[in-house]
Amino acid sequence: MPTRVRNAGDHLLALWHLARPAIWLVSIVPFMLGFMLASGRILPRAGGAGDFGLAVFVIGPLVWAAALLINDAADLEGDRGNPRRARSPMVRGRVSVRFAVIAAHAAAALAIVLGLLVNGSFAILVAAFLAVAWAYSVPPVRLKTRPGADVAANAIGIGAIVVLAGWSVAAPVGAFPFWFLGQSMLVTTALYVPSALVDLEADVAVGYRTIATALGRARAFAIGRACWVACNLAALGLAATGQVLPRAMLPVLVVAVPVLIVAYERLIGRATSPRAMVRGLIVLSFLFLASNVAFVVLSVR
Known about the structure:
By secondary structure, the protein is mainly α. It has helices spanning 8-19, 25-39, 49-79, 97-118, 120-137, 149-168, 181-198, 200-206, 211-241, 250-269, 274-291, 293-299.
């Protein structure tokens, strides 16, 4: 029988594992996109470095600690039957559900308070992200077990709210080109579907209804692939017209887009196990990130 953690150091180590640092980039990358669109810079000028650094801390470690801790607390029974979650401190009994819930609320409160130090718009967007995270995980709403709503929650939370949060650090939210959110939401959806497919067998075993369990592997993958093709073709169109993406990116995208579309088919569509799917998702994410290095280089003023 696992032993509960007994000191502050053990609790902090458990929090570190539960907050899953590898996931922080899932929000930091779209945050940086929003900031770059608003400022034309990768990093802020010297006078704005404090607010920028605080915003990154909030939108990365703090919001994910809050979102993942509350999710794990709600998912404990299901996670016990999921081999991928076998090493979780909660599954192993190292920390309690009560501890996770208290820590989640503390992280959420701190995120909003620190967000206010950046600016009011940023704090409101942080609160909106946390509201979506709670609705995604916590009964009775629990959008993650409502097929379609699980996808929408991620598309809105990461693909829209986080991008707007990055923009709000450098410019008024009202000046954002809101039509561009469709593009970022397509990317988020295309990358979320494989994450649902990773847990398909475990979710079926515990009776969770997600887009993957409701539609099955083939149809769920088809949705992800359609979104991936659409967002990449849209990027070509944006570059060709000079809307948001600079025209100088067009030659890069002419090469990168077919590679990315084929990679999605091979790495995700042909994955034969959850582990292979995870590897494919990681590789695909890095390929997509690499293709956007050109955007950074050509957009920075």
